[in-house]
Amino acid sequence: MSKPIMAKATAVWLVDNTTLSFKQIADFCGMHELEVQGIADGDVAAGVKGFDPIANNQLSAEEIEKAQADPLHKLQLKHYAAAQGEEKRRGPRYTPLSKRQDRPNAILWLVKFHPELADSQIARLVGTTKPTIQSIRERTHWNISSMQPIDPVALGLCKQSELDAAVQVAAVKKAKEGAALSDDERRKLLSTEQSLGAGAEPRIPTAIEGLQSFTLGQDYHPQEREKEYDADSFFNLPDADDDEDDDDDASR
User: Fold this and answer.
1) SS3 breakdown of the chain: % helix, strand, coil, rounded to 5?
2) Alpha helix (H) ranges present in the chain?
3) Which of 32-36, 66-70, 218-222 is least confident?
4) In the chain, N or C: fewer CB atoms in 10 Å?
């Protein structure tokens, strides 16, 4: 359910001016029931001025009266057409100051392991600008020598679901363009769940690559080769009778 603007100040006003239960106010303002109870006791939101939801077109007086008469009734936020879609902010994602220094490392990771992502997708994922992405792609960034690729999900710059969704969009775009993908690129276009669920593919060692297409000549016959090359034929050992004749000649 959508929350009212200035939720805590709205809760202060509802506690001071209505007989609504703590649970009703907590559900409407997106707060915990104990937090609303703390507002009533004066332990929470001390000095916060109440924000009238009726005067600011968030609640109607009839809705409040209905909720006061029925403790099980949940307050419904009044539909305000002018604020429709206002929560969808345009522009790059906001990145906290503590994590902004990690953005170049995250961009380098995305450029290295997901080169199929467009600059606009990377900008939305980590909250950066296209010139910065381009400088890292071309390795002309002023700090490129000390950068290390780090997963933006591990850095907390984006969610894994958001990264998977961006990769899937890139996969669909690649398929429409008809570009040929290598095995490594195809694995990169898979989501995390698909990658973990896929079995390991047998790979041929690099030392014997090309031997899978090796074939023997048509004249090769294993049985004939065995007859032609007998194991005993490799050892030219004299017979026993010949050895005795040689000994007799020597004694004479």
Assistant:
1) 55, 0, 45
2) 7-17, 22-29, 33-41, 61-69, 103-113, 119-126, 130-137, 152-155, 160-177, 183-188, 192-197, 222-228, 240-251
3) 218-222
4) C
Q: Two tokens at 128? A: 């950066």
The sign of the dihedral angle between the CA atoms of 205, 187, 125, 152 is: negative
Triad 165, 30, 60: Cα angle to 5°: 115
CB-side neighbour CA atoms (13 Å) of 109: 18
Burial track 53-65 (b if 16+ CB lie within 10 A, e otherwise): beeeebbeeebbe
| Placement of tokens 């570009």 in the chain | 179
Domain ranges of the chain: 7-83, 89-196
Q: What is the pTM of this model?
A: 0.41
Which residue in the block uniquely carries the two structure tokens 């303002």? 29
Residue 132 in contact with residue 141, Cβ under 8 Å?
A: yes
Nearest alpha carbon to residue 30 among 1, 57, 51, 53: 1
Give the model's pLDDT for residue 232.
Answer: 61
C-alpha span between 232 and 93 (Å, rounded): 81
Q: Give the model's pLDDT for residue 183.
A: 57
Measured CA to CA, the distance from residue 252 to residue 237 in angstroms comes to: 24
Q: How many CA atoms lie within 13 A of 1 on its CB side?
A: 14
